[in-house]
Amino acid sequence: MARTKRKPRPSASGPADSEWGRPVTLPVIRQERVCLAVIVLIGAVLRFGNLSDIAVEHFDEGVYASNIWFDADNNFQYPDRQLYAPPLMPSLIEFSLILLETGSWGTMLPGLLAGTASLLAIWWLGREWFHPPIGLAAAAVLALSEYHVLYSRTALTEPALGLFWLLAVYAAHRAILSPSWVWVLPAGILAGLAWWTKYNGWITLAIAASAVIPWLLTSHWQSPQPTDSGRRPNGLRPLARTLAVVVVAVVVWSPVLANLQPTGGYASVAANHRQYFVGFAGWWNSFLAQCSTQAYLSGVTSSCGLLLAATLLGWCHTWREDADQAGKNRLWASLSAGLLIGSVMAILALCLGLATVLAGLAILGCGSLLSDMLRPADAKPTAPPSSPGSQLGCWMLTSWIVGLTLATPLYRPYPRLMLPWLLGIALGAILGLSVLVRAAQRRLADSQSVANISAAVSLVGMVVLVGLLPVTWRFHGWDRRDGLRMIAPDIVRLVNTAAQNDGFQADQAVIYVYAEPGLFYHLKADGFQLCAPAGNLDFMTPAPNAIPYPTFLVAGPHADRSETFHSQVARFAARLELLQSFEYRASDLVRLNELPASALRSGQPLPAESIRLWRCDIPFESP
Predict the structure, then answer these.
(1) Which of 126, 451, 554, 557 could serve as 134's disulfide partner, Cβ 3.0–4.6 Å?
(2) How many CB atoms lie within 10 A of CB 188?
(3) pLDDT (0 to 100) of residue 555
(4) CA separation for the pair 476, 520 (Å, rounded)
(5) How big is the CA angle at 198 (ends 260 and 399), to the nearest 5 degrees?
(6) Is residue 18 within 8 Å of 389, Cβ to Cβ?
(7) pTM for this predicted structure
(8) Degrees (nearest 5) of the Cα angle 182, 187, 193?
(9) pLDDT at residue 372 in the model
(10) What is the CA 63 to chain-centroid distance, rounded?
């Protein structure tokens, strides 16, 4: 009886399923599923925990969350909402508020879900582009990143943008390599959704387009093998599919562009963005400010993400080892290597900031892969050959990191702008961390005594980390952000009392909120109906036949930074009576928009800002 030929096991690069040799997806084994479940659980606890201390506070959060308070007369949106973001995230928040009502869950749920789902997305992206341990380690770094946790717990566009960004570049990678056109449509839709979320979502298309040409060139430089038909792969097909993805994305985004036409088209959005553009003259200062902010928001928890990632990289390589003594020795050496490299990187991250260490590792990881790809095919290889899928992934990741590193500091150093960069740099850093762990594994595998010493050094490193906890511990992801929510009820109480003292019903008072959409949201959420946002004090000059309701003005830190507001207040000073000033201490998430991280890091108490309430004396015409 003839024996059936055993099917070979897929290698790390996998068998080809297209003319470019795209690897078949490796099966997710039990150990990987367990590790992923633990990582996602930790990430979810960090993001969903302690929600009672967060509320709408950031200016843009107030804009997005306040859609629900406007009817058809206002186009169902906060005034000029289109200048701040496309409609997707505000619509998701509005839908969440309809389901869950006005609380932390209602406003934050879309961001919480998107931030947690990003852990799954970066895991899948890493394992598909490179290798399963890369995906797990990248998910571990992202799960414990205090910066990512902080922004996942907001009603901003960044969490959803990050999720769609990861999915869009993954789908574009599949579309380029696939033997058919089936992935073109989902790739275009996902890029379009990133564009619907934030106006820079189109960069996902630029990443794919800028990577495909050097990938094709290096593929031919390495002289790829002909296909079974005896022909070389057709380089025009990846280019055509890339163009098709761009076309689909533009079509998906076109309703947003059409919706902008009544308010000046995209030109009005671009004009608003230009006021935040610092150009090349301000690039260096913006770059340094972003680096300082990233270091400030990186604590022990973020550093432990690198320790966990390196340990996973060491352990994952032993999953298929035999259970004999040699296999146990290799397991010990691998774990010792991961713990050693992870401890060193964690301490460096604690001293220099997570982003700095991630950037250095990403340069090592991407540089190592690119140097192997650029080596001629007849040269002696220094590492196992990577698959075309990994090569394209490396070019896309390099384009992603380099492009955002150059482009992001061209704008004012708002910390939120760095989130897409962090996703790319985290993935690139794991490649570099893998290089170091593998090198340490090779050294430690040769000597049991060296492995024991390495384990002891790793233990000392972890003890140092634990010893630094009392000095450095602060989990930025759980910073308290409910200052405006706490002030809103006091404003409502004072306004109602003042209106009743003037002989009016409480529900007849009117509040104008100047440039504080977050406070406007909370006043409406507290049931104050006659409340409106204001960008000027024109209401101080009433229209003919206006109803003489008692009128009040509320302003805060954003108004304090406006010269227009100060000039208008000076103009109407005689008709404005200050009723009360409320002390307001903004969270770091808000303060970092205006202050350098060094001012917060110094430990010196910053002066409290204030929310002020005025009664307005408006000369209504007598009936």
Answers:
(1) 126
(2) 25
(3) 96
(4) 26
(5) 125
(6) no
(7) 0.91
(8) 140
(9) 79
(10) 19
pLDDT the model gives residue 326: 53
Cα–Cα dist 195/192, whole Å: 5
Contacts of 351 (CB under 8 A, 6+ apart): none
The most confident of 3-17, 275-289, 366-380, by mean pLDDT: 275-289
376-380-386-388 Cα dihedral, nearest 10 degrees: 20
Task: DSSP letter for 23, please.
Answer: B
Q: Which two tokens stand for residue 43?
A: 């990430």
Measure the CA–CA gap between 419 and 160, rounded to whole angstroms: 11
Q: For residue 582, list its beta bridge partners.
A: 611
Q: Please give the Cα distance from 618 to 612 (Å, whole number).
A: 18
Q: How many CA atoms lie within 13 A of 113 on its CB side?
A: 10
Question: Which segment of 195-204, 281-290, 346-355, 595-604 scores lowest on mean pLDDT?
Answer: 595-604
Residue whose entry in the numeric block shows the structure tokens 């769609």: 164
pLDDT at 469: 55
Q: What are phi and psi of 96, to 5 degrees?
A: -65, -40
CB 110 within 8 A of CB 89: yes
For 196, the token pair is: 């619907």
Tokens of 14: 């996998």
| Cα 79 to the center of its chain, rounded Å | 26
In three-state secondary structure terms, 482 is: coil
Return the bridge partners of 535, or none: none
How far apart are alpha carbons 70 and 94 in whole angstroms?
A: 11
Packing angle between helix 30-48 and helix 132-144, nearest 10 degrees?
Answer: 20
Which residue is it, tokens 């690119």?
370
* CB-neighbour burial class of residue 558 (10 A; exposed 0-12, middle 13-18, buried 19+): middle
Yes or no: say if 215 and 154 are a contact pair by the CB < 8 Å rule: no
314-365: pLDDT as tens digits: 888 766 554 444 555 667 677 878 888 888 898 888 888 889 999 999 999 9
* DSSP letters spanning 263-301: GTHHHHHHHHHHTTB-TGGGHHHHHHHHHHHHHHT--HH
Rounded Cα distance, 196 and 202, in Å: 9
Task: Name residue 268's amino acid.
Answer: S
Condensed to tens digits (0 to 9), the pLDDT of residues 198-224 reads 999 999 999 999 999 999 888 765 555
**Which amino acid belongs to residue 313?**
L
The 3-state DSSP class for residue 70 equals coil
CB 338 within 8 A of CB 311: yes
- Helices 236-260 and 184-197: angle between axes, nearest 10 degrees: 40
Structure tokens at 550: 């008692």
* The pair of three-digit structure tokens given for residue 189, joined into one six-digit string: 């839709």
Rounded distance, CA 64 to CA 93, Å? 7
| Closest among 354, 333, 334 to 434, alpha carbons compared | 334
| Cβ-based neighbours of 416, under 8 Å, separated by 6 or more | 151, 156, 158
Order of strands across the sheet that contains 510-514:
531-534, 510-514, 551-555, 609-616, 576-584
Q: Residue 194's closest CA among 226, 238, 161?
A: 161
Got the DSSP string for 327-376? HHHHHHHHHHHHHHHHHHHHHHHHHH-HHHHHHHHHHHHHHHHHHHHTS-
Residues 22-36: b if buried by 16+ CB within 10 A, e if exposed: bbeebeeeeebeebb
In terms of Cα–Cα distance, which of 485, 537, 498, 496 is closest to 515? 537
